Structures are given as structure tokens and as C-alpha cells.
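User: Good morning. I'm curious how flavin mononucleotide would be positioned relative to this chain. Could you predict the structure with it bound?
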Amino acid sequence: MKVLIVYYSMYGHTYHMAEAVAEGAKEVDGAEVEMRRVPETLPEGVLRKMRALEAQNAFAHIPICGVDELASADAIIFGTPTRFGNMCGQMRQFLDATGPLWMKGALVGKVGSVFTSSNTQHGGQESTILSFHITLLHQGMIVVGLPHSFQGQMRTDEITGGSPYGASTIAGAKGERMPSENELAAARFQGKHVATIASKLTR
Ligand SMILES: Cc1cc2nc3c(=O)[nH]c(=O)nc-3n(C[C@H](O)[C@H](O)[C@H](O)COP(=O)(O)O)c2cc1C
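Assistant: Good morning! Here's the predicted structure, ligand included:
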């Protein structure tokens, strides 16, 4: 049973969440878990001005995802930073290249799930995940979120991401905040939850 974690990250927050998702998925017996990043679309000069190059070096070892790799996975968990309440353009461009997979119904019946990161607490995490789900549904995927059995999403004693739609982290106005323990726990839970469902479906 193969779980693919496909993400884009500019400053590392989504990457750290992706690692936690992978940790959770690996807890499931028989799960073969792979991490992939989607291709960058911004020129290096723009990334330098956005002070993204150094952060991106930390995960340069993660292979770039080929579109056809999606077809060989049983579950795909996507991670994207919020851009104006939506997925980032890099992820949109990657998904827009999956038309041939759609034509063949190659992703029909696979488990799909989404996690995200935004700078602000109410900056569009839920809209990012829910609008991402539309693409997964067009591909015929079985959409899975973060159930309330992950109790950490009920917390009010600290600021935290995480909703029934998926794990999320709040990066802070200047990106100074890295995922909290609770947010990483949400990501681990989501990874394990998706892998458990995929394992039952493939049995
Ligand atoms: C063009 C652009 C649009 C953004 N839009 C939002 C937004 O709507 N809400 C928000 O809270 N953060 C927004 N952000 C901040 C990113 O979501 C933040 O940098 C990201 O979550 C950090 O994750 P990363 O380190 O994985 O890139 C935006 C950033 C950029 C560059």
C-alpha cells in the first residue's frame, strides 16, 4: 500500500508538516510512504527577493514529483501553503497537468487528503483545503480530512491550526512561527488516518 505525500513549501512550514504526515503514515503496517515536492515555477531571482532560497535548501533532497507517479499511489496527501485563501500556484500548475490521468480515470477510488499553512490564524486555511478538495473530487478521489478523534483540534488554551478538513499550521505574520507540537500531532494523525483507510481499501 503506497502513500504519496506531495507538497510545495516556500519557507519550510508545509515541509515540516509533510514530514509529520509521513511519520504518521509510516505507523501503519504495510505502508510504503514517499515524499515528493511539486516543481518550482518562480524564477530564482524572484525566490531570492522573497528570501525563500535558504529555506528551500533544507528540503532540496526531496525528489520532484512526476505527474504519472500519482497513478501508482493508493493514497495521496497534498500539502500547500495558502495563497489568498487558495492553494499555491505551483500546486495548481502541477494539478493542471493531471488532465491525462483524469482522462484515464487513473486516480478514481484513491484516497486524497490535504493539509496547509498560512501566516494568519484566519487567513484562509479552511478555504484552501476545501477548495483543493474540489480538484480531488473531479479526479474521483475519496476525500479524507482530520476527524474529531484528533482531540487536539478542540484546544483553546493555545493558538493552533487543525480543523475537520485537515491539519494546518499558523506561520506568523513574518513566517517566524514553526509548526507547534499540537499542529505536528494533527499532521501525524492525518497521515496515519489516511494510511489506515487506504490499507482497508486495498485489502
Ligand atoms: C502571494 C502570497 C499570498 C499569501 N496569501 C496568504 C493568505 O491569504 N493568508 C495567509 O494567512 N497567508 C498568506 N500568505 C502567507 C503564506 O501562506 C505563508 O508564507 C506560508 O503558509 C508559509 O508556508 P511555507 O513555509 O510552507 O511556504 C501568502 C503568501 C504569499 C507569498
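The helical segments are 13-26, 44-49, 53-57, 89-96, 99-104, 125-138, 181-202. The mean pLDDT is 97.
Let me know if you'd like a different ligand tried.
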